[in-house]
Amino acid sequence: MTQIYAYIPHTNGVAADAALEFPSAAKKIDDGASVTAVVTGSGADLDKVAESMTSTYSQVIKIDNADLAYPNAEIVRKALINIIPADAIFLAVHDTFSMDLAPGLSVKMDSAYAADIVDFEGVDGTNLKAIRQELGGAVNIHVNIDISSGAVITVRPGSFAPVEDGSAGGAVEDKSGDAGDLSAKRKFLEIVEAEVGDVDITKSDVLVSIGRGIEDEENIEIAQELAEAMKAVVSCSRPIVDAKWLEKSRQVGTSGLTVKPKVYLAMGISGSFQHMGGVKGKPFIVAVNKNPKAPIFQVADVGIVEDILDFMPELAEAINDL
Ligand SMILES: Cc1cc2nc3c(=O)[nH]c(=O)nc-3n(C[C@H](O)[C@H](O)[C@H](O)COP(=O)(O)OP(=O)(O)OC[C@H]3O[C@@H](n4cnc5c(N)ncnc54)[C@H](O)[C@@H]3O)c2cc1C
Hints:
By secondary structure, this protein is of the alpha/beta class. About 25% of the residues lie in helices and about 30% in strands. It folds into 2 domains: about 5-180, HUPs (Rossmann fold, 3-Layer(aba) Sandwich); about 200-320, TPP-binding domain (Rossmann fold, 3-Layer(aba) Sandwich), CATH 3.40.50. It has 9 helices and 16 strands. Helix 5 runs parallel beside helix 9.
């Protein structure tokens, strides 16, 4: 039977959304696979997240060690090496932490490595068929991963449908004693909290999110007028922050903030996975883009091919006239 281990990221005792996405990914690898959640960390927060996983996973492994309190991939890798069977499939989220963790782990396990997978198409012999995307999502690449001696795979967040937080009735197994020597060459110093801005985009039900399509700093006012008309808040993609047109606290994405609005207006945003990785909770997505082939249209509920500099003022005017 295929053995799959899912590495659960968590903060302050709360598992990341990916915890509910791994079971769907595992099912697409092998419907009959045994799937085990793995949580590393320390103390009460670790206990809380491990316990919370028992409703989704029938088996949960926790590794508790003071050295694992901070997300140091070097130490996590050392612990996992002693716990994950060599021929297992290890899944992690494709994020900055896992880009640090996964390649080295696959070398140590002498197993295959595949990054940023967006879909699986089952196992054929010893080949796991998987899909990646290239060219900003315009092209799907089909890859065969030889899993005869296991595999370490990172999956793109948001690519697999989250399962209901169910009633798996699982149990937590404490494998802390098997982690072995966790000494490290890299020392963790501190966590620096993100700056707090003038608005909290994570709390807004409606976001008017602007991307490079806004073209000029002066045009941001147009988005703000639309947001005012909709009682929404303006958020943005990373290039807008890089250009210093809006502050970092407005950035949505994997290196920005995670938002869970009810309605998400993507204005002149191409729809990169780094951006969409920050859009959670299945909002109703309205995308406006000049390019009919923009990847954002693949995830939008409503797609409009239009110049946002014409569209936004017209929509604001129509709403204000109601
Ligand atoms: C490690 C890493 C982390 C990252 N983290 C993030 C992150 O947290 N958040 C994030 O957003 N990005 C992030 N990025 C960057 C990401 O890869 C993309 O480059 C970025 O999301 C693209 O932003 P965009 O869609 O605004 O710009 P583009 O990709 O340039 O898209 C602009 C879109 O606007 C359209 N357009 C142009 N003019 C108009 C107009 N007048 N009217 C209508 N449409 C128009 C174009 O057709 C295009 O589709 C990260 C990248 C890396 C490598």
